[in-house]
Write a structure and sequence with these properties.
By secondary structure, this protein is an all-alpha fold. It has a domain of 169 residues. The chain is built from 13 helices and no strands. Helix 3 packs parallel to helix 11 and helix 5 runs antiparallel to helix 6. The C terminus is likely disordered.
Length: 321
């Protein structure tokens, strides 16, 4: 961790100075200063977030074509990779765009961890010995570890909920190329918050405040962008799913998993229609075949038989004469 701390020193010093300025000049508590840092960082990253949204919209628009390409070259992995990269270049789609707003936040998050770890000795004791380290009257000390107070457990629960919310919103905005990928993405977003808990319990409370605020911003940004950023017109008519009415564009809220379910339902319906037509055809052939011989009633058979016997007797009598 020490070599990493040395590498992040150019970020740690400005971050520490920013927290001090927010506390000293603006008058924010240390906890609200961390929240303000999150807001400032995310505002700076808004252009990257917009670029990410546009790229994901384009990827969602061309997802059916990408599926067809993968199906065509499924037996040749090298050819598939070449065609997929060519496809991305031709359509001007960046598949790594979803990581654009995340990457700059990682060094800031780690730098804040080191800042808070030495916050008492480097900032509080020499410069603000009487400073209050509490947050919203619940958290007694933002530099303490999560499990040192029940408020840390509460923050951990809020973190899991906010992480699930932001992850599922991101999942709906990110198209999957097949059903298997959609399932893996959903499992990853659901399991990830619980996997991180054993590591998060070692974090300072202030770092968890940063993380929860970031998740809440991501969730709010996802809702806002789906509402206020319209889907761009790419010039050619988009492919429609079975839920889309004729002459109507594919809605933004329809994710790839819904398309997969629609396709499966449509295939099942066609199979039922085919089976019904085959049964009807088989019944028609049976009716149009040779008609079965009519069975005579027992009385008719008996009368017919006795009539034959009378005729034979008359004929026999004539021959004797």
């Amino acid at each position: 961790m020490l070599p990493l701390a040395g590498l992040l020193q150019p970020i740690e010093d400005p971050l520490e100075d920013l927290l001090v300025w927010l506390h000293e000049a603006i008058g924010l508590s240390w906890g609200w200063a961390i929240v303000a840092v999150v807001v400032m960082v995310r505002i700076v990253l808004v252009p990257l977030a917009v670029k990410q949204i546009r790229s994901m919209q384009r990827l969602q628009r061309y997802a059916p074509e990408l599926k067809a390409l993968q199906k065509k070259h499924k037996n040749d992995k090298q050819k598939l990779n070449e065609e997929v990269m060519k496809f991305y270049r031709d359509k001007k789609v960046n598949p790594a765009a979803s990581c654009l707003p995340i990457l700059p936040q990682i060094p800031i998050f780690i730098a804040l961890f080191f800042v808070l770890r030495e916050f008492d000795s480097d900032v509080i004791e020499p410069r603000f010995p009487d400073s209050d380290l509490s947050f919203v009257r619940i958290v007694p000390d933002i530099t303490a570890k999560l499990l040192d107070h029940w408020s840390g457990v509460l923050l951990l629960v809020i973190y899991v909920i906010s992480q699930l919310a932001s992850g599922l919103l991101a999942l709906r905005a990110t198209p999957a190329t097949d059903a298997r990928q959609a399932r893996l993405q959903k499992i990853m977003f659901i399991v990830l918050p619980f996997v991180i808990i054993p590591f998060a319990i070692r974090f300072p409370v202030g770092l968890m405040i940063y993380w929860v605020t970031t998740n809440l911003w991501t969730a709010g940004q996802g809702i806002a962008t789906r509402r206020f950023i319209p889907r761009p017109d790419f010039g050619d008519a988009p492919k429609r799913s079975s839920r889309t009415a004729p002459g109507e564009d594919e809605p933004d809220g329809l994710d790839d998993e819904d398309e997969i379910e629609d396709a499966a339902a449509e295939e099942k319906r066609k199979k039922k229609e085919k089976d019904a037509k085959a049964k009807a055809k088989a019944k028609g052939k049976q009716k149009s075949g040779s008609a079965p011989k009519k069975r005579r009633s027992p009385a008719a058979a008996q009368s017919g038989g006795s009539g034959g016997q009378v005729k034979r007797r008359k004929k026999k009598g004539r021959s004797h004469r």
